[in-house]
Fold this sequence. Notes:
Helix content: 55-70%
Largest sheet: none
Number of domains: 1
Structural class: mainly alpha
Number of strands: 0
Distance between the termini: 20 Å
Radius of gyration: 23 Å
Oligomer: single chain
Strand content: under 5%
Amino acid sequence: xxxxxxxxxxxxxxxxxxxxxxxxxxxxxxxxxxxxxxxxxxxxxxxxxxxxxxxxxxxxxxxxxxxxxxxxxxxxxxxxxxxxxxxxxxxxxxxxxxxxxxxxxxxxxxxxxxxxxxxxxxxxxxxxxxxxxxxxxxxxxxxxxxxxxxxxxxxxxxxxxxxxxxxxxxxxxxxxxxxxxxxxxxxxxxxxxxxxxxxxxxxxxxxxxxxxxxxxxxxxxxxxxxxxxxxxxxxxxxxxxxxxxxxxxxxxxxxxxxxxxxxxxxxxxxxxxxxxxxxxxxxxxxxxxxxxxxxxxxxxxxxxxxxxxxxxxxxxxxxxxxxxxxxxxxxxxxxxxxxxxxxxxxxxxxxxxxxxxxxxxxxxxxxxxxxxxxxxxxxxxxxxxxxxxxxxxxxxxxxxxxxxxxxxxxxxxxxxxxxxxxxxxxxxxxxxxxxxxxxxxxxxxxxxxxxxxxxxxxxxxxxxxxxxxxxxxxxxxxxxxxxxxxxxxxx
Length: 491
């Protein structure tokens, strides 16, 4: 038996051993608590195994690690939190056995994804690595001074389009999946990519590029007024991951301090800033002052408690699954379109197929169908993760078959983006790291498929930026292609 087969069989056997051990050791726990803790331990063991495999391959923070962390948070931590801290809202009250069922769904989905990732065959990975190397050559000019300027110009044009379409502030029905949204979102992300490319170059080469911090400050100034926490977190996550992958990880004290700051200050402030309506978008400065006063009025202890509740309350993937398990006399197949219809219609522009289903509204349809939001509320969206959607479509068979295929897709994405030793491609990975983690927390057509679309559009604009930079640099006689090798590659 080779090493890969041994690892897969170990992955199949360990969850059963964990469940057996938890049952024996947890004699003082209720059966429901045993199930919850056993699932959480199974997820923890999987994280440790994956970390060990990454270290053996010389990798750090690959896409699979991000996906497994999201599943562990949404189903492991989330189910434990809601089991011991029931929500007072009767619409979100679910039996404890439903939370146990949800936690086991998350653990099974995580292991199935991991096994599918490991089982990816070499012909696929080799072909994608060759494609990645060709792409890296085409976009290499984007790492020059001229390329960075072009990325900034393209990016800010995209941001003007985002503002013009009313999608800057985190309000209204701004979850769309039309072609213009994909293009504008990819464009708006280019300045973040430019900053991360410079940061990677700085950390890898030891160059003194103080201007990168100016770009990062500009990105924070752009993201904070929007009220979208994901924009800020995405930038921070990208910086932390890229620095770690450059073999220059941040000190643990710095990571811990930043985490405490986010939990105790940033998240409560963002919740108070946005509130429950769209009024903050009319006067952001006034909303910020009111939010800061509200956040700090209760003292440090109240800030910490509010922050912890706001943070753990976001890990609601398991809660949504528990609601489905409870039933509530809802036909799961009646929510949204079928998975096949979403996937088949996805490549077709909405201009050619105006009535094609919109995966961006699935979370809202789910919430209304299960009574989690008011019937007349067409804005509020409820988290429906990829494993839960597969279960709603095809029961346990869908989870067992489709989650391994999802693991293969994440492996393919990893090989495509990280298969070449390229500063630009790794900067692209840093800019999409948070989106990779979040993609498992929503349905496949909106999460992973949307991520692939955005990545392809980003590669197109990176190619244009590289081409433009080479023309401008060549005309000036100062073409300076600085494509520094990054010290890692996919094994």
